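Researcher: Quick test of sequence recovery. Tokens follow.
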């Protein structure tokens, strides 16, 4: 029978190994997007030129540009939609499907093959935030000059998927999309009024370290890359949501607000202090 000191030593060793494993796993977790890019990086929106990306825009009149990562839950759940868009692009003479990711091309190609998504081109970028994409998945519709005509962020509802399919099937691209991409910005006065009357949830989308150092007015911290998994579980659809932009980047706050709308939260605001960012 082992001595008591030996048992204590074994337990301590086991605890050390467990802590090391947890820390190692956390370090290895992929970061789909960066939540704190430099302030001078614009959010991709209709009218943005992406002509500097490594693709040949003049090869078709329209491009479906799918920005994904292989670890993104919403990307996996949206794979059937992307497979359908892939088939539509293959059957069209004027539409190309391009996939953009910050992961190695071989890894992305393997994920696409598993999901029967067949792009014409796969483009690897070093950092998605550096090209103005703050949440994945993001789908861009780009013209032959590299100009963005539509932006779709996050996992779509059945109605939004139907609208998107209709837009892709329309050769003139004239079918309107209803994604409510613009979110109302509020200042300190409006924030105070909402807090006093409607009891909204104020959400900070920065990473945990930044939030803990300066929580600001937020009551909930859900980093941007965790919205798809956590928001439907942790946030109430019966209360207004305010994305706190007092310590973040305006573009990423608006992208998060659009994503929350796509997740079914209809009453979403962006809090931007009057001092501006």
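Model:
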């Amino acid at each position: 029978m082992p001595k008591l000191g030996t048992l204590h030593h074994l337990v301590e060793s086991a605890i050390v190994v467990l802590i090391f494993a947890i820390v190692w796993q956390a370090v290895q977790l992929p970061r789909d997007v960066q939540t704190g890019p430099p302030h001078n990086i614009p959010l991709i929106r209709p009218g943005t030129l992406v002509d500097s990306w490594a693709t040949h825009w003049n090869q078709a009149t329209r491009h479906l540009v799918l920005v994904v990562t292989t670890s993104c839950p919403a990307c996996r759940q949206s794979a059937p939609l992307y497979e359908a868009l892939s088939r539509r692009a293959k059957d069209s003479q004027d539409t190309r499907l391009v996939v953009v990711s910050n992961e190695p091309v071989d890894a992305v190609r393997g994920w696409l093959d598993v999901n029967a998504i067949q792009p014409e081109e796969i483009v690897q970028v070093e950092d998605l935030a550096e090209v103005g994409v703050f949440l994945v998945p993001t789908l861009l519709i780009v013209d032959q000059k590299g100009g963005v005509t539509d932006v779709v962020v996050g996992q779509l509802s059945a109605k939004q998927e139907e609208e998107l399919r209709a837009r892709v099937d329309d050769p003139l691209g004239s079918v309107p999309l209803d994604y409510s991409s613009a979110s109302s910005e509020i200042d300190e006065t409006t924030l105070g009024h909402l807090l006093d009357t409607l009891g909204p949830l104020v959400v900070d989308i920065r990473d945990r370290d930044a939030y803990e150092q300066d929580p600001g007015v937020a009551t909930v911290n859900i980093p941007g890359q965790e919205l798809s998994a956590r928001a439907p579980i942790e946030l109430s659809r019966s209360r207004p949501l305010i994305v706190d932009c007092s310590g973040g980047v305006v573009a990423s706050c608006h992208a998060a607000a659009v994503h929350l709308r796509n997740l079914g939260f209809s009453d979403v605001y962006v809090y931007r202090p009057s001092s501006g960012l």
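Strands lie at 62-67, 95-101, 121-124, 138-143, 148-153, 184-186, 201-204, 220-221, 241-244, 268-271.
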